[in-house]
Specification:
about 30% strand; 2 domains; Alpha-Beta Plaits; alpha/beta; 10 helices; Rossmann fold; 4-stranded antiparallel sheet; 14 strands; about 300 residues
Length: about 300
């Protein structure tokens, strides 16, 4: 009996206009396509590329053409043409190796360093808190502005001794940063099984920190179960704005009355609507920051 042929992959590379980023990510997520990254070099944050990996047997030419056709209307909404896509077919072993060509040590804020797992700490960053990450097959190492906004907010007010809930944990970078900055424990959930695996794998790179992080697949209901009736002191939620809005009615079940939440994943021009929704639910925005078109809201329960 002969072994099965090794799996091959298509890699789509698409230059990413800032106006299209949220729409494209939202569309791909709705199509169930999660093996992707948004990449840039630290010195050129405005030149971003979407990379998407698709199993070759499931994506013949007509299916790939249909995917591009489904994305084109998103660009026309902004009066743009979808950039010319690039398709490269890769062997299975090449798929993981290609990730390593795109990542470099990435300093964040005053004292954090996102470091791909296979690299050594550069001498010039030896005094920073190192967050070792493996990009893996579904999530990057935290270069997106919304992730950076959350990391900088955590650094600004370190969660010393706090119990942290991470709703939509992705790669796990925010929870691991919280632990590195002094959090007592992190309870994390994500609806994507690949995210749960990525968080577990990245936690294992952090040694003892992994013992204080628990992650499960699910949404806010699963987070409630993890918290066991004791709401968190700090809620992290780095998800797209419409999802935050849908989840907001359950925030009070996962965050104690005196706690605070960091909400990112939203565009600056979505902040006003989200603020109004949160206000109706009894939350007030206590701080707002931005990087380019992306924003972060800090919220707390409004005093009675």
């Amino acid at each position: 009996m002969t072994g099965s042929a090794p799996l091959r992959w298509w890699r789509l590379s698409l230059p990413l206009a800032p106006e299209l980023e949220e729409s494209l990510l939202w569309k791909l997520d709705s199509l169930g396509l999660h093996r992707l990254s948004v990449e840039h070099a630290p010195e050129t944050p405005d030149r971003r590329t979407l990379q998407l990996w698709l199993p070759a047997p499931e994506w013949p030419l007509d299916e790939r053409a249909a995917l591009i056709a489904a994305l084109e209307p998103l660009a026309s909404t902004f009066g743009l043409a979808l950039p010319q896509p690039s398709w490269i077919e890769l062997d299975d072993e090449d798929w993981s190796l290609t990730w390593k060509q795109h990542w470099e040590p990435d300093p964040v804020g005053r004292g954090l360093l996102i470091l791909p797992a296979w690299l050594e700490v550069p001498p010039e960053h030896a005094d920073r808190l190192v967050l070792r990450m493996d990009p893996g097959s579904a999530f990057g190492t935290g270069s997106h502005p919304t992730t950076r906004l959350c990391l900088e907010a955590l650094e600004e007010q370190p969660p010393l001794g706090l119990r942290v809930a991470d709703l939509g944990c992705g790669s796990g970078i925010l929870g691991l940063a919280a632990l590195g900055l002094g959090a007592e424990a992190v309870l994390a959930v994500d609806t994507d099984s690949l995210a749960v695996r990525a968080t577990s794998d990245n936690a294992s790179l952090s040694g003892a920190l992994a013992e204080r992080l628990e992650v499960r697949q699910g949404s806010v209901e699963t987070l409630e179960q993890l918290l066991e009736g004791q709401p968190a002191d700090l809620l992290l939620c780095n998800i797209l704005a419409p999802v935050i809005e849908a989840l907001a009615p359950r925030f009070q079940s996962v965050l104690r009355p005196q706690g605070r939440a960091l909400l990112s994943g939203l565009l600056v021009d979505q902040a006003a609507r989200l603020t109004a929704v949160l206000d109706d639910l009894g939350w007030q925005v206590t701080a707002q920051t931005a990087q380019g078109r992306w924003g972060l809201l800090e919220i707390r329960r409004r005093a009675a």
